[in-house]
Amino acid sequence: MPLEPLTFAVAIPVNDEAQSIVALLQRVVTTGAVRVLVVSDGSTDGTNALVERFAEQSPVPVILQATSERPGKADAVNRILTATADVDLVAMVSGDAMPDLGCIERLVAAFDDPTVGVAAGRPLPQGPPGLPVVEVSRLLWSLHHRIAQTSPKSTEITVFRNVLSRIDPNSLTDEAAIEAAVAARGYRVVYVPEATILTNAPLTVRDYMEQRTRVTLGHLMLAREGYGVGTLSMRQRFRALRQVWDEEGVAPKTLVLATALEVGIYAIALWRLHFRPRPSGVWSPSGSTKRAFL
Q1: N or C, where is the chain less crowded by C-beta within 10 Å?
Q2: 84 SS3 class
Q3: CB 222 within 8 A of CB 153
Q4: Residue 63 is inside which H or E element, if any?
Q5: Terminus-to-terminus CA distance in the chain, angstroms?
Q6: pTM of this prediction?
Q7: Phi/psi at 275 (5° precision)
Q8: What confidence tens digit (pLDDT) does each residue in 72-99 have?
Q9: CA 234 from centroid of its chain's CA atoms
């Protein structure tokens, strides 16, 4: 007797995503989701009005939950978990990401295997070619792609089996926190490189540093609790770099800049881990990533 198809909802946590939210909603309502939930974390740029207007004519129910304050993305994730308790899977899409055609469907298909608990796609950073920090972002995600083939990790679009009730509201890396919690229940994490995702690369070194320091600190916090994200490993990074160097080539100036930034980021994150109070789950967004996809 064939198994019933798994049901899933698309959940989009957002903060000031007016530049791309309509295009994102147009993409996700065609995926087969039973509904789309948008959780707006203190948006003030008109995002909420755009979602409400779209919902009026959407072929799939689109529900907006909005707060006037900013309790943080991890808090938004916990509200998503409460509001989607009736579905088998949750496809969580960052508000500043854009799934390519078929991305979410490919991730959902991975759950035909009952041992799979998390399926993640491949981010492809977008930005002006030749801009040094954009080239660093492209190199970073090329390394992550290589690492994820042997040590899968969550990314900007992650589908997960709905077995959680909440995550730590102070988490700095909500996708990784979900990944760790689902894996702790005995499920596998899989990487689906054919499920490609457009993301906006930071356009300034400051935005890159802030974004990467937060993520690295979040991963270090998880490592201290016993869960290691594959891309945190320097050994895996160097192995992936050799592969990219041999097969794709790397501009020396990009490699020098990327190395200098990542060494500094790792050092800052380690210092904050050991000598600063535990951070809250609210952080400043990277302003230069808030732009429409071309």
Answers
A1: N
A2: coil
A3: no
A4: strand 62-67
A5: 46
A6: 0.91
A7: -125, 0
A8: 788 888 999 999 999 999 999 988 899 9
A9: 21
